[in-house]
Amino acid sequence: MQIYLPIAEVSVNAFLLLGLGGIVGILSGMFGVGGGFLMTPLLFFIGIPPAVAVATEANQIVASSFSGVLAHLKRKTVDLKMGTVLLIGGLVGAAFGVLLFNYLKSLGQVDLLVKLCYVVFLGVVGGLMFIESFNAIRRARNTQATPVPKRRQRNWVHALPFKMRFRTSGLYISVIPPLLIGLSVGILAAIMGVGGGFIMVPAMIYLLGMPTKVVVGTSLFQIIFVTAFTTMLHATTNYTVDMALAVLLLIGGVIGAQIGTRIGVHMKAEQLRVLLAAMVLAVCAKLALDLLLQPAELYSLGAAGGH
Questions:
Q1: What is the 3-state secondary structure (H, E, C) of 115-152?
Q2: Is 239 a member of any domain?
Q3: In this predicted structure, what is the pLDDT of residue 92?
Q4: Does the residue 207 lie in any domain?
C-alpha cells in the first residue's frame, strides 16, 4: 500500500514504515535508547531526504520514549530531579543545534553533515559497545576465577562545585556534568534526529555513577522533552516535519516499545548490548559505503534550497 509523503515528496509503502517504527520501538523498550540513531539512517535507505528524516524522527522518538517512561514510572525507576537537570542542558543544546542545522541547510551542506555525523558516531559507539559487552560476557563466564570489581565511588566528577543531592539515584554530585551531558545530547538531537540515549546511558553509568536500573527511565524522561522541543523548532523554522510519515512511525513505535520492555526483562544485559552493538555497526557500514561508492545517477534534479 503506497502512501505519498507531501513534505518528503516521495511515495513509500505504509506497512514498511509501520514495521520500521515497530522495530525501533522494540529497541527503545529493550535498551532505553530512543532508537533514532537507527531509524534515521533506515529512513535514508528507503529514500527519505536527510533533512526531513532528522526533523520527523525527532517527533517519533517523543512517542516511543513516552510509552517507555510510563512503564518505568510504574516501577519507580525514574530520577525526576536528575532528569530535570539533564533536560535544562538538553534544551539549550537543542536550540543551538537547530541554529547550526539551519545555517548549514542554507549553505546546502546539511545532508552531507548529517550522514558524516552518523558514520562517525555509529562507528565509535558501536565499536566501544561491542568491545565492552564482549568483555562483560567473558567476565561472566570467568566469574568463579575473579570477583567482579566494585565500581569506583569517587572520581573527578565528585571534586566539582555546585553539588546537589539526587535521592532516587543515591548520589550527591555537582550539577555541571549532567548539564554538559544534556547539552551535548540536545545538539545531537537537533542535528541527527536522535534521542541521544546511546550516549547518555553510558555517560550516566560511567561518568555520574548512577545505578543502572534508574538510568534507562531517567534517560527516556529527558529524551521526551528535548526531542519534542527539537521537533517544534524544526517544524517552525525548517518546515521539514512530515506528519504523515511521523504518524505511521509513531503507531509502530508505541506498540513496539511495549513489546520491547517485556522482551528486555527476559534477556541478559550483556546479550542485549552485543546485539545492539552489532546492529549499530551494520548500519554504520551501510552508510559509509553509500558515502564512498559512486551513485548510479551522478546528478539528481531537486528543488534547491527548499521552498
A1: HHHHHHHHHHHHHHHHHHHHHHHHHHHCCCCCCCCCCC
A2: yes
A3: 92
A4: yes
What is d(CA 171, CA 81) in angstroms, rounded to the nearest whole number?
A: 11
Residue 305 lies in a domain: no
Nearest to 182 by CA among 195, 193, 172: 195
Q: How many CA atoms lie within 13 A of 232 on its CB side?
A: 10
pLDDT in tens, 122-175: 888 788 878 877 787 788 777 655 444 444 455 566 666 677 777 766 677 777
Number of domains into which the chain is organized: 1
> Residue 268: which domain range?
2-292
Instruction: Name the stretches of the chain with pLDDT < 50.
Output: 146-152, 298-307
pTM: 0.68
Give residue for cell 521539514: 240
E strands within the chain?
2-5, 10-13, 163-166, 171-174
